[in-house]
Amino acid sequence: MEAVTAAWERYAAGRTPRRTHNAAGATTWLNWTQYADHGPDESVIGEIHGRRVLELGCGTGCNLAHLSTLGAQCVGIDIAPTQREKAAARWGHLPGLSFRTAEATEFLAAHPDSFDVVLSIFGPVWFIDPTTLLPLVRQSLTAGGAFVFSHKPPRPDPQPGEPLREARAVSRWDHSPCKWAALLESARFANITTEIIDPPHGEREGTLVVRAEAREERIGRPARQS
Ligand SMILES: C[S@@+](CC[C@H](N)C(=O)[O-])C[C@H]1O[C@@H](n2cnc3c(N)ncnc32)[C@H](O)[C@@H]1O
Questions:
Q1: Is 226 a domain residue?
Q2: CATH code for the domain in which residue 58 is found
Q3: Residue 69 falls inside a structural domain
Q4: In the structure, which protein residues have their CB atom closer than 6 angstroms to any atom of ligand 1?
Q5: Which residue's C-alpha comes closest to atom 10 of ligand 1?
Q6: Neighbouring residues of 72: CB distance < 8 A, sequence distance ≥ 6
Q7: Could you list the pLDDT tens digit for every one of the 226 residues in the chain?
Q8: Ligand 1: which residue has its CA nearest to atom 4?
Q9: Which residues form the Methyltransferase type domain (predicted)?
Q10: Are strands 97-101 and 73-78 parallel, antiparallel or unpaired?
Q11: Cα(198)–Cα(140) distance, rounded to whole angstroms?
Q12: 145: containing domain
C-alpha cells in the first residue's frame, strides 16, 4: 500500500490546479471527462440536495465542492495526503463538505449503510479490483442509492507493429460497458446504465460513464409450516 500511496503522491505533485472559472463563468462545476468544458453535468447522478455523498479519490475536491454548493452533505476521501491538504485549502470554507486521507476499501468497510450517493471520477473504481470494491460500495450505500463513476473506455489491443503500452505504477481495471454491467449486477446493483461520451472535436478517446443503484432487497420470512 505504501508504494501505491507514493505513486499517487507523485501524481498529485505533478498536477496543476483546476481553473477558478470554467468557460461558462462558473466557479464550481462537475466534470466527468478528461476534457475541460465537456460532457454531462451533475444531472447524471439524480437527486443531490440533502443527499449524503461520498467521493472516492476526490483529488483536490473540485467536483465534490460543486455538489456541496447544490445542498449535498459531502465527504471526499483520497489516499494521497497532499490531495486532502489542497482540497481543504481551496474548499474548506464550504458548509457540509469534508475531506479525509483514507484508502477507499478501508474507508468503505468502516462505513456501512452511510451514503445515498457514491462517486468515483477517474478514481479508485478504475484502480481497485472490482470483485473487492463493488461489494464494499454496495454495502456503504442506502437501498436505492446511486453509484456513478467514470474513466477512459478500454482501448483495443495493440495491432502488430504498434508500440506496446507503457508499464504502469498502479493497476487499472479497463472494463468494457458490458463487463461493468455484469459485475455490478452480481454485486447486487440494479438499473445499470453505461454510456461512452464522445470526445470533443479533434480528440480520439471518449469517456465511459456508468450509473447503477443499490438494489432494494426484501428479506423474506421463511414460510410457516403447517
Ligand atoms: C486520476 S485522479 C482523479 C482525481 C479526481 N477524482 C478528479 O477527477 O480530478 C485519481 C485519484 O484517486 C486517488 N486514489 C487512487 N487510489 C485510491 C485508493 N485506493 N483509495 C483512495 N484514493 C485513491 C488518487 O490519489 C487520485 O487523487
A1: no
A2: 3.40.50.150
A3: yes
A4: 8, 56-59, 63, 77-80, 83, 103-104, 121-124, 127-128
A5: 123
A6: 48, 49, 50, 51, 52, 53, 96, 117
A7: 788 999 999 999 999 999 999 999 999 999 999 999 999 999 999 999 999 999 999 999 999 999 999 999 999 999 999 999 999 999 999 999 999 999 999 999 999 999 999 999 999 999 999 999 999 999 999 999 999 999 999 877 656 666 555 556 788 999 999 999 999 999 999 999 999 999 999 999 999 999 999 998 866 555 565 5
A8: 59
A9: 54-149
A10: parallel
A11: 31
A12: 2-11+28-154+171-214
CA distance 18 to 3: 26
Report the residue among 79, 101, 134 best suited for mutation to probe ligand 1: largest number of ligand atoms under 8 A from its CB.
79
Question: Ligand 1 atom 8: the closest Cα is on which residue?
Answer: 121
The total of structural domains in the chain comes to 1
Which bin fits 61, alpha (ψ -120 to 50), beta or left (φ > 0)? left
- Grid cell of 20 as nine digits: 477558478
* Any domain includes 6: yes
What distance in angstroms lies between residue 44's CA and the mean position of ligand 1's atoms? 20
Residue type at 220?
G
In-domain check, residue 142: yes
Tens of pLDDT, residue by residue over 182-207, are 999 999 999 999 999 999 999 999 99
Ligand 1 centroid from CA 221, angstroms: 42
